[in-house]
Write a structure and sequence with these properties.
With about 190 residues, chain A is mostly helical. Chain A is about 75% helix and about 0% strand. In chain A, helix 2 packs across helix 4, helix 4 runs antiparallel to helix 5 and helix 5 packs across helix 6. In chain B, helix 2 packs antiparallel against helix 6. Chain B is flat. By secondary structure, chain B is mostly helical. Chain B is built from 10 helices and 2 strands, in the order H-H-H-H-H-E-E-H-H-H-H-H. Classes of the chains: A mainly alpha (about 190), B mainly alpha (about 250). At the A-B interface, helix 1, strand 1, helix 2 and helix 7 of A face helix 2, helix 5, helix 6, helix 8 and helix 9 of B.
């Protein structure tokens, strides 16, 4: 495959991951009383599947589409207002989180333990940006901000991390060789 | 299952259609940003303007409501959460200031979403792309054409992927997969086939784009910033000043 083909394919994969992240904002799987929204799972999968650099490009495109007013954020909204709203920190947090996930996963070359660590680090990074932002905008105390913006989602996050591993193992062979050094071990 | 607001471009010659796409995006940025902590005066004027412009751009009220119904459910939920408080133990209490505040929050969100819908209804994707290239050009480290093409691909594929997701979940329901209680199994059965289909489509898309000699250096549609745009921006700035009148 020559370099321009490779470049084009990577670009299309990154765009589609951005579109999938947007789709994740619309889809909730009803499990128990709180439905699980798939957006942050899909965003972190962009890092796992595409690697650090293209993962970040994919998320940046997603955020750019949202900033341009396209309805890609949770609840079918878009617009620059979302970034300065109370949940803006989670959106900004995707960029470093996906980069971290991608970088760690590239180093791990498909080892399950490393992928797990990458997902864990990514999830924590999103909260590290989201919760202080929520506190800042709404003026809540730390404990209340964490109770509203983190604790209710932790069980869902655990499920998402657990399910991300078989998903990347199934999907990586399709992308192998396209996305830099990420390969399946064994 | 969610649904994308399916309001796409509506051809026409209304005031909004004739504005430069860059002007429209600037208006969206300015007014959308200001809406978030605006008072009644600003929101009232903006909503009225949006209504009149939407009408002349060919959007009907019924269709707009039908297309945004999921967002409207979401708004009702936000309203309920904001308006009801549990300050005195387990008995919910509703107070007038809380109701007013909740109403304002919903109004602000609604006006921002309406702006997005109007932009989509009155601007071709190629023009949005050209405007994005123009906006991104001064930012270093970004290839503006590539970024704009990628945003264009997202717009194109979003409805397609949502359609595939719905088709897939129908097929799975027919095979009783929704009866499985284990959330891990359900997440897996949902995500893997969806991603696989999308990625297979990506390969076809790459081949199709190459067959048509795709390159980053395509000719962009010419954009013209005319007098009507200057007037629109001026009016918007005046409108922005009303934020300070509470």
């Amino acid at each position: 495959m020559d370099s321009s083909t490779l470049q084009l394919k990577r670009m299309i994969y990154a765009s589609l991951m951005a579109a999938l992240t947007a789709v994740g904002a619309y889809i909730a799987i009803p499990i128990g009383p709180v439905p699980i929204v798939l957006q942050n799972l899909f965003a972190l999968l962009a890092g796992l599947l595409l690697g650090g650099r293209w993962g970040v490009i994919s998320i940046a495109v997603y955020l750019l589409a949202g900033a341009a007013g396209l309805p890609v954020f949770a609840g079918g909204t878009g617009g620059i207002g979302k970034f300065v709203g109370p949940t803006g920190g989670y959106l900004f947090g995707y960029v470093p989180a996906v980069y971290l996930v991608g970088m760690i996963a590239e180093k791990g070359r498909g080892r399950v333990a490393v992928d797990l660590m990458a997902m864990l680090a990514g999830t924590l990074t999103i909260y590290a940006f989201g919760v202080p932002w929520l506190k800042l905008i709404t003026g809540m105390t730390w404990s209340k901000a964490a109770a509203v913006g983190m604790l209710p989602f932790l069980i869902g996050d655990g499920l998402k991390i657990a399910v991300a591993i078989p998903i990347v193992r199934a999907l990586r062979p399709m992308l192998d060789g396209l996305t830099g050094p990420v390969r399946v071990a064994g | 299952m969610g649904e994308l607001t399916a309001i796409g471009f509506i051809p026409g010659r209304s005031l909004l259609h004739r504005l430069d796409p860059r002007t429209k995006q600037m208006l969206l940025f300015l007014l959308g940003g200001l809406s978030l902590n605006a008072g009644v005066t600003f929101l009232g004027v903006v909503t009225l303007a949006l209504g009149i412009l939407g009408r002349s751009a060919g959007l009907s009220l019924g269709r707009t409501i039908a297309e945004t119904r999921y967002f409207l459910y979401f708004l009702v939920f936000v309203f309920a959460v904001r308006a009801v408080s549990f300050s005195g133990g387990w008995i919910p209490s509703v107070s007038l200031p809380a109701l007013v505040e909740a109403g304002m929050v919903c109004w602000r969100l609604l006006s921002v979403v309406l702006m997005g819908i109007l932009l989509m209804a009155s601007t071709r994707i190629a023009h949005i792309r050209a405007a994005l290239v123009w906006f991104l050009r001064p930012i270093p480290g970004i290839n503006p054409r590539m970024a704009a093409t990628m945003v264009g691909l997202v717009v194109r594929f979003l409805p397609l992927i949502l359609f595939q997701a719905r088709e897939m979940s129908d097929a799975q329901r027919a095979r009783c997969i929704d009866r499985r209680k284990n959330p891990l199994v359900r997440l897996r059965h949902f995500t893997i086939p969806l991603f696989r289909r999308v990625f297979l489509g990506a390969d076809e898309l790459a081949a199709a784009m190459q067959a048509r000699c795709y390159s980053n250096d395509r000719t962009l549609p010419a954009l013209a910033f005319g007098r009507i745009d200057a007037v629109a921006l001026g009016v918007a700035l005046l409108l922005a000043a009303t934020v300070f009148i509470q």
